[in-house]
Amino acid sequence: xxxxxxxxxxxxxxxxxxxxxxxxxxxxxxxxxxxxxxxxxxxxxxxxxxxxxxxxxxxxxxxxxxxxxxxxxxxxxxxxxxxxxxxxxxxxxxxxxxxxxxxxxxxxxxxxxxxxxxxxxxxxxxxxxxxxxxxxxxxxxxxxxxxxxxxxxxxxxxxxxxxxxxxxxxxxxxxxxxxxxxxxxxxxxxxxxxxxxxxxxxxxxxxxxxxxxxxxxxxxxxxxxxxxxxxxxxxxxxxxxxxxxxxxxxxxxxxxxxxxxxxxxxxxxxxxxxxxxxxxxxxxxxxxxxxxxxxxxxxxxxxxxxxxxxxxxxxxxxxxxxxxxxxxxxxxxxxxxxxxxxxxxxx
Length: 347
Prior knowledge:
Blueprint: H1 17-20, H2 34-48, E1 55-59, H3 67-70, E2 74-77, H4 83-93, E3 98-104, H5 105-109, H6 113-122, E4 127-132, H7 167-173, E5 178-183, H8 187-199, E6 204-209, H9 221-224, H10 229-232, E7 233-235, E8 243-244, E9 250-255, E10 258-263, H11 285-292, E11 300-307, H12 313-327, H13 333-337
Parallel strand pairs: 1-2, 1-3, 3-4, 4-6, 5-6, 7-11
Antiparallel strand pairs: 5-11, 8-9, 9-10
């Protein structure tokens, strides 16, 4: 992993995983996918290399939102759906902080949906970890905005009637500059992707397909399960053709304006015919198609799907403030008190 270079102050001592471990007991259900996410965060933070006091974790409400207690950095446990608004304020008040948000599919895309799409649209330099278990876990099993249509839950005993969000589609539709997806059972891939998210200057969204062992057990199993993942998952890597399958004999190619699955070696198909992944291309068209892929027709795309550079809200705001300081006629309190319409009282 190459060093991250930006204005956030780097640590002058080498930090380890131990430095970021909290002494509080971790209260998640045994078998919860959150444990793997926590492990990845504790692994990647020392690799990022910032001073420990320059990290901040922000959360809303939900099982994911206990995260600030379990990472030994500054934290803010907010209210339901408002983590993005709080994190925006923190980043604008102190741009030299590395701000991270832990949120769930309900917290971010239901009550917090408005804040979620606008922090992405503004491109504030924060990192969003979106734990998607397609259910409300903390409040005991209601369906969420990502629950599959027809799913039986505490609040949909006859099956949901709502079309679910595709997280990647929502992020890219909100003009997202960074979107990645990882399964909770691949800590190595998750760690690598979180490092790429930290490098990104702008809003990064990492969707984590996370298992709720109590209320939605194995919801992602037909994608991430050992006997399914080779056929139903494809890990995207920059500059490499998109290949998957147990025998690595299938691939994705662009046929006209649509993606299609092809078999290498059939009908003269070779690796040269396959789509080569480029997360840095500005046009989001291919990225959107990759983000929307799903079984049975396609594998689910994992890894960094989109990573492009656009001006960030916090950088633009800081520039405006500096320009105002330069151009303002008011340089001190005396200038302020003597500005505008003033009068003198003679006694």
